[in-house]
Inverse folding.
């Protein structure tokens, strides 16, 4: 459960690498896609392991398999109903001019909240429903409503600041005021190095990427918001004085070390890696690829601001 909780990297903490054009676009895009997908991929497993641990500690129904399958299954139902059907209805209204920019922004936010709360109400997992619903919404609208989605993204970013504040005040504060335990610190160090870097290297077998690239991609898997949220979910079911205490300490140490180490190393390592790759000839790292979405959004916003400024000036 600890391993799965710490598996997803954080896109925000890796922004200095994903937006650094010294790094080949193929590598930046791969890291960006990984950070976007891993939260949703890990969520069903986290749900399953929470049910197992809770049953093992006598805190929940011993039929943990059925409980986990029920939560995942009902979440998928909510995602289909809200994400796909809601997306189709919104696209239908948009095509006929029945919506405005503001109403589309509000409708998309409402669908995201409805997917989460709808799944929770019927006994499913809200995070799985929201993640799967987002994918189905994109498929239903064929990405034609990408711009109004940015409003929900901005609100989500604001919400992440609140979660980070909770993490600093409750998690880190309590950790630094108690006796130091070696086990969580050791696992945190392994999680940021061997436990991530070896699987990344194995996953990239056959891509013919350079060893320096494998090491670079393996190192830049910063842990952050998803791990905090998964831990909060676990602590709702697991007693912090028991197994939950080890989970809390391990996750907190891993994220704390990640924030410091990845924050310090991001810019210099990205510049050094980019310089070494630029001197090479025709290598797989330089294969064509689309820019990571976050950069495209930033550029589009910048172009709009420049156009607005030009109109005001003229």
């Amino acid at each position: 459960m600890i391993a799965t909780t710490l598996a997803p990297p954080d896109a925000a903490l890796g922004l200095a690498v994903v937006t650094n054009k010294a790094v080949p676009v193929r590598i930046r895009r791969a890291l960006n896609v990984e950070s976007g997908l891993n939260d949703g991929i890990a969520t069903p497993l986290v749900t399953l392991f929470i049910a197992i641990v809770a049953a093992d500690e006598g805190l929940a129904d011993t039929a943990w398999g059925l409980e986990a399958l029920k939560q995942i299954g009902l979440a998928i139902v909510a995602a289909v109903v809200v994400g796909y059907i809601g997306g189709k209805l919104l696209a239908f209204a948009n095509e006929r001019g029945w919506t405005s920019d503001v109403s589309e922004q509000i409708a998309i936010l409402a669908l995201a909240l409805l997917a989460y709360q709808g799944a929770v109400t019927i006994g499913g997992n809200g995070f799985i429903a929201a993640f799967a619903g987002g994918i189905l919404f994109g498929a239903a609208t064929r990405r034609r409503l990408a711009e109004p989605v940015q409003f929900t993204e901005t609100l989500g970013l604001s919400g992440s600041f609140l979660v980070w504040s909770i993490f600093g005040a409750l998690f880190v504060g309590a950790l630094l005021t108690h006796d130091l335990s070696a086990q969580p610190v050791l696992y945190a160090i392994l999680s940021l190095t061997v436990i991530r870097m070896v699987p990344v290297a194995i996953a990239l077998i056959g891509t013919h990427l350079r060893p320096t690239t494998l090491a670079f991609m393996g190192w830049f898997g910063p842990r952050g918001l998803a791990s905090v949220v998964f831990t909060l979910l676990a602590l709702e079911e697991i007693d912090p004085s028991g197994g939950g205490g080890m989970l809390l300490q391990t996750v907190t140490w891993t994220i704390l070390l990640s924030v410091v180490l990845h924050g310090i190393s991001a810019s210099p390592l990205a510049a050094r890696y980019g310089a070494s790759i630029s001197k090479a000839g025709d290598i797989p790292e330089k294969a064509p690829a689309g820019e990571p979405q976050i950069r495209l959004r930033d550029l589009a916003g910048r172009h709009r601001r420049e156009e607005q400024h030009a109109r005001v000036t003229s």
